[in-house]
Write a structure and sequence with these properties.
The complex is a heterodimer of chains A (about 350) and B (about 250). With about 350 residues, chain A is an all-alpha fold. Chain A has helices at about 1-25, 35-45, 50-85, 95-115, 120-150, 150-175, 180-190, 200-215, 220-225, 230-235, 240-260, 265-280, 285-310, 320-340. In chain A, about 80% of the residues lie in helices and about 0% in strands. Chain B has about 250 residues and is an alpha/beta fold. In chain B, the strands form 3 sheets. Chain B has a 6-stranded mixed β-sheet, sandwiched between helices. A 4-stranded antiparallel β-sheet of chain B has the order 2-1-4-5, with helices on one face. In chain B, helix 6 (about 170-185) links the parallel strand 7 and strand 8 (about 190-195). The longest helix of chain B is centred in the C-terminal third of the chain and has 16 residues, at about 170-185. The termini of chain B are far apart. Classes of the chains: A mainly alpha (about 350), B alpha/beta (about 250). At the A-B interface, helix 9, helix 10 and helix 12 of A face helix 2, strand 6 and helix 3 of B.
Chain lengths: ~350, ~250
């Protein structure tokens, strides 16, 4: 079948593009390091301790985080789109990020007022935990609503309304929060890949890998769920169990990324569509790895853009770039979806 | 193959079917008739284990369906409803292939046998030329055939269809029902389908199950026509059933 050849070449092409983008990320940044020096650091023969430090402690962790975050967000987006049977589902649009934001806001802004603890490791773990709880709660709420309401657009509107309501609550919390905790929170909301250190990656990476593995376990269920829960059940799927696995996977993936990097929008929604358009398949055995690869590549490109502007000493939150990249794709999907009906 | 033992169905507070007992055999095409909201879908869903009966029991292949685990049950009964599956980038072949799920491993990998069964299912339903087409570009008639091919790929002795002709034009309706009759008579399956097409049901089905809330009768087609049941069901100030021409006529 010619489809198989197409898939293989696309996988190879995307991998090569991702490696190229990752290498570009190593090369670019606020400090300009010559190409041969970068190479020396990679092969371990560099004598410039400063360069070694920048590359191994700043740029390399950032690349790892970008790859993991891109993979995680796009995989969770794909799982949500299939589970909700909604092409516009994604962690950001459904308000999963807002849920995480509320958790983080309560934790960083309200807890210190009540006399909470501090300490950076405690903060990190705490932020991760509350972001999970927040995103899981919103996901469950949207799931409950989507069982009652079948309309695709109604669910999205509700997701957005939830998001607005939560921003309002977060606004109030910001108003009452102390200046220092406010700064912590605002920095978090801007979304950044570079605040994650090598020490954080030790927690971050295994959780993402577990989330992705749960996604792989759910591949067959996701294929069956393409036809809806009724059909899936008559084909022998334990729908409740599959839904739990998919829930767990998306919460771990989207919640963890949001906790560590802040709310990063549109990657989760747009990448599954890019994967479907390029690979021309809905089979999750191909679609899941394709989406994950697109996610990694796109986050690396976003990183590259931040590096380029950082070179001109302008720091852009990664949020703005993912939005500029993702929104056109989403508008395209909406228009196409409308025309079909 | 399917045995209904004194089953009672209700939709919320409303009683739909009270004490239905009958059995359906393999190799037969059975039409399920009844007016809107009388419980045809509810009955089919109950047999497909998608809903529950208020009391009584449904036996498939000699076993009460509540005792059959969901994966084994998927090898006994396949289900097709009216809902149009509009999935982006899903090819007709891949859709039919999903029907093999009760037999494949945890990743859903296909063996050569699986592929042969999929191809045969698409051949019988006459959709092999659509294999590489995306399902969201198919016409309603083509889509319905692909969904039936998926049910066939599930390789079950029983196929349940909920109003398979609902969105089809006249010639497509006849074509589809001829296909269903072939599945029953050539492939030896029990095909149980609900429909509003009285003329198609009366001319093609081997037997007819009639829901006249809260009564339920199941009898061979010829017997039903002369029984006076249909007249009673469709009698209204506007229309009446004429047993000679087997059709509904305006008064």
């Amino acid at each position: 079948m010619h489809g198989k050849r197409l898939h293989t070449s696309l996988f190879v092409l995307l991998t090569l593009m991702s490696i190229a983008a990752a290498f570009g990320d190593l090369l670019l940044g606020t400090t300009s390091i010559p190409l041969d020096e970068v190479w020396r650091v990679i092969v371990g023969s560099s004598e410039n301790a400063n360069y070694v430090k920048i590359i191994t402690e700043l740029r390399l962790p950032k690349i790892i985080v970008a790859v993991l975050a891109g993979m995680a967000l796009s995989a969770s987006g794909l799982e949500m789109q299939t589970l909700f049977r909604n092409p516009l589902a994604g962690p950001y649009v459904l308000g999963i990020n807002s849920g995480a934001s509320l958790g983080v806001a309560l934790f960083t802004l309200a807890l210190p007022i009540l006399g909470g603890l501090s300490g950076s490791m405690f903060m990190r773990l705490g932020i991760t935990g509350v972001a999970w709880i927040g995103s899981a709660l919103i996901l469950m709420l949207v799931m409950l609503l989507s069982r009652k309401i079948k309309s695709v657009s109604t669910i999205l509107i509700i997701g957005m309304m939830l998001g607005s309501a939560i921003s309002a609550i977060v606004g109030v919390l910001q108003y009452v929060g102390s200046e220092e905790s406010l700064k912590t929170f605002v920095v978090w909301t801007m979304g950044s890949l570079s605040t994650v250190t090598m020490a954080d990656i030790v927690i971050f990476a295994p959780i993402i890998i577990v989330g992705l593995m749960l996604g792989v376990v759910a591949i067959k269920s996701l294929n069956m769920l393409l036809l809806g829960e009724g059909y899936a059940r008559t084909m022998g799927l334990n729908v409740r169990r599959s839904r739990t696995i998919i829930f767990l996977s998306t919460t771990l993936l989207a919640g963890t990324v949001t906790a560590f990097c802040g709310p990063i929008g549109f990657i989760g929604l747009a990448m599954p569509h890019l994967a479907r358009m390029t690979f021309r398949t809905a089979d999750h055995r191909i679609l899941l790895p394709a989406t994950i690869l697109w996610g990694a590549f796109s986050m690396l490109v976003c990183c590259l853009v931040t590096d380029l502007v950082a070179h001109h000493s302008l720091i852009l939150p990664v949020n703005t770039i993912t939005a500029l990249l993702g929104v056109p794709i989403i508008i395209f999907v909406v228009i196409r979806h409308r025309n079909r009906q | 193959m399917i045995q209904l033992n004194n089953i009672t169905l209700a939709f919320g507070e409303r009683m739909l079917i009270n004490g239905a007992t009958t059995h359906f055999e393999c190799g037969k095409m059975v039409a399920l008739l009844g007016r809107n909201g009388t419980g045809k879908s509810t009955l089919l869903r109950a047999i497909a284990k998608l809903g529950e009966v208020s009391c009584g029991e449904i036996m498939v292949d000699g076993r009460n369906i509540v005792d059959v685990d969901i994966r084994s049950f998927a090898r006994l009964v396949a289900f097709v409803n009216t809902e149009r599956v509009d999935v982006e980038a899903l090819s007709a072949y891949d859709l039919v292939a999903i029907g093999r799920s009760p037999y494949t491993d945890w990743m859903g990998r296909m063996t050569a046998d699986d592929r042969a069964i999929i191809e045969r299912a698409m051949q019988i339903t006459g959709v092999e030329h659509l294999a590489q087409r995306m399902v969201d570009t198919l016409s309603d008639g083509e889509c319905q055939r692909v969904m039936i091919a998926r049910a066939l790929a599930q390789d079950t002795p029983v196929i349940l269809l909920d109003e398979p002709t609902a969105f089809l034009d006249l010639s497509n309706r006849y074509e589809l029902c001829t296909l269903l009759s072939r599945l029953a008579h050539d492939e030896g399956k029990l095909v149980l389908f609900s429909t509003h097409e009285l003329d198609i049901a009366l001319s093609l089905a081997d037997s007819i199950a009639l829901v006249d809330t809260p009564d339920f009768v199941h009898m061979p087609t010829a017997e039903l026509i002369s029984s006076g049941r249909i007249e009673k069901l469709f009698d209204s100030p506007y229309v009446q059933f004429d047993p000679l021409s087997k059709a509904i006529k305006l008064r």
